[in-house]
Amino acid sequence: MKIPVVVLLAAWASVGLAADGGTYQELAAIYLADKDHGPIENLERPGSVRSHLPGVETFDLLEAPRREGAGCVRQRWHVSVPDGRRAGLQPVRVHSSGEVALSQGACPLVGYAGINPGMSSIQAIAVLERLREPIVLSTRVRLACAQEFGDQQCNRDHSLAEVVGDLRPWQVGRQGQEVYVWLGTPGQLVTEIRYNAQGPQSLQVSRRIPAPF
């Protein structure tokens, strides 16, 4: 007898499969069965405390990246599974988001930046490329701080290279005509670079504690 996939999903969720284990291939076969996805090559669990809700197991399934322009693109599938040992049967929630990274050779395994809605992967790669240009890194900017962090760089002029240092871009997005990049570590202090897509020669750089996600 063939058991409907939806029944299988509910049954596996009820025994907490995500909590008890399973390879990423097995989890992909279960939770992405009705999704149009590429090969899954890894599994990650969110590190943020806010990602762990009572009675819910969360994890991300990562597609193998593919070359695109001057970088690489991959999809990250976010899966939230009710733990049936503590919660009743509820819908399994699955959604995806895109990520990009610069690369001149093989696609990297880490160092990807998420793409917010409203921006294509090609546009996001172009933004990351721009932030590596020597003429941009040498631009003099004044770092504005939303709060006082005891940061000696705050409210002083520096080159962009001095401000960003070794900070890693982790989110790229667009709001209207403005493009922005968040650098640092998700959930911690955010350094934001923002500029008008029609006049990218003027950069606004700020440092702030992020709003809750």
Main sheet? 12 strands, mixed
Helix amount: 10-25%
Strand % is 35-45%
Class computed from helices, strands and strand pairing:
alpha+beta
Number of strands: 12
Query: Low-confidence spans: pLDDT under 50, at least 5 residues?
Result: 1-20
What form results from the Cα inertia axes? globular
Radius of gyration: 20 Å
Question: Helical element count?
Answer: 6
Distance between the termini: 44 Å
Residue-averaged pLDDT: 80
Describe this structure in words.
The chain has 213 residues and is an alpha+beta fold. The chain is built from six helices and twelve strands. It has helices spanning 5-14, 17-20, 24-31, 121-130, 134-137, 160-164, and strands at residues 40-44, 56-63, 66-68, 71-82, 93-102, 113-115, 140-145, 157-159, 169-175, 178-184, 190-196, 199-208. Strands 1, 2, 3, 4, 5, 6, 7, 8, 9, 10, 11 and 12 form a twelve-stranded mixed sheet that branches.
